[in-house]
Amino acid sequence: EGVGPQEYTAIKLKVLEWTEEGRKELAGKLPESAEVFLVAATLRPETMYGQTCCFVGPKISYGVYQVSPTQFYVCTERAARNMAFQGVFSERGVFLSVGTLQGQSLIGTLVHAPLSVHKDGVRVLPMESVLATKGTGVVTSVPSDSPDDYATVKDLSKKAEYYKIKKEWADLEIIPIIRTPSYGELTAEFLVKKMKINSPKDSKQLAEAKELAYKEGFYQGTMLIGDFKGEKVEKAKPKVREILLGKKEAFVYSE
Ligand code: A2H
């Protein structure tokens, strides 16, 4: 981190159902046939089978950027600018927003998460620690393998009323995706419990857990699911990424 450019896999989560607020804010701004995608930047494409929700920062402002006459991407303006210079939109360097949405208005949106075992879609939920200055400002949640994601979904489930969400949106089943010798089949849960992390605000411990989970998963992990079940993560990771890119469910995004 911090050295040279970071190459992310940008995952396209298609909107299946808007919230009331989202619908209002975008009324009249999209063509009838529009397909809108939340775009989440990830470094762990091999974990996408385990997506259970999608995080936005409730106070972050997102744009709705035109990709083609009928396709639109939701991300921060900063990310759209970078995408424009990476040839993601039709004209290099040009990014056109047809509307803006507060993260708060996106909460509860139903989206399709590529490769996820949760085929009926997953919900957009709030995460306070999403940075507007990194990636796309959208983070797809894999609580089996990301300690941050695990701590956040547990907190959301516990305080559903406070967050004004439905508890079941945070309670989608957490399926094992990767086995490692040190942490078993649910790396994030193991580390969060072992390190006694009680809240998504325990940022120092979460940073440590994230480091451990990432290294162990990458170098020692074996896939438990999907097209490359039984293969080492190191080998499977680029192959899962190629599948997503090939199906146009993802694209390369760097910064
Ligand atoms: B990762 P790096 Cl399973 N704010 O994806 C906060 N976090 C962000 C972000 C933002 N604006 N944009 C991306 N991220 C998260 C999967 C995953 C991730 C797993 C395990 C670890 C992990 C599912 N969430 O990240 O600072 C995204 O979460 C730990 C390395 O650029 C992205 O990959 O190194 C990762 O942080 C990028 O972090």
Topology:
Elements: E1 7-17, H1 20-26, E2 35-42, E3 53-56, E4 61-66, E5 71-75, H2 77-85, E6 97-102, H3 103-106, E7 110-112, E8 122-126, E9 138-141, H4 147-158, H5 160-163, H6 167-170, E10 178-179, H7 187-194, H8 203-220, E11 222-223, H9 233-246, E12 250-254
Parallel strand pairs: 2-5, 3-8
Antiparallel strand pairs: 1-2, 1-7, 1-12, 3-9, 4-5, 4-6, 7-8, 10-11
Explained architecture:
The mean pLDDT is 97. Helices cover 31% and strands 24% of the residues. The strands form two sheets. Strands 1, 2, 3, 4, 5, 6, 7, 8, 9 and 12 form a ten-stranded mixed beta sheet that branches. A two-stranded antiparallel ribbon has the order 10-11. Helix 4 crosses helix 7. It is built from nine helices and twelve strands. By secondary structure, it is of the alpha+beta class. It has one domain (7-254): Isoleucyl-tRNA Synthetase, domain 2 (Alpha-Beta Complex), CATH 3.90.740. The chain has helices spanning 20-26, 77-85, 103-106, 147-158, 160-163, 167-170, 187-194, 203-220, 233-246, and strands at residues 7-17, 35-42, 53-56, 61-66, 71-75, 97-102, 110-112, 122-126, 138-141, 178-179, 222-223, 250-254. The site of ligand A2H has 22 residues, from strand 2, strand 9 and helix 8. Residues 1, 6, 41-44, 47, 129-131, 134-135, 137, 139-142, 145-146, 149, 210, 214 line the site of ligand A2H.
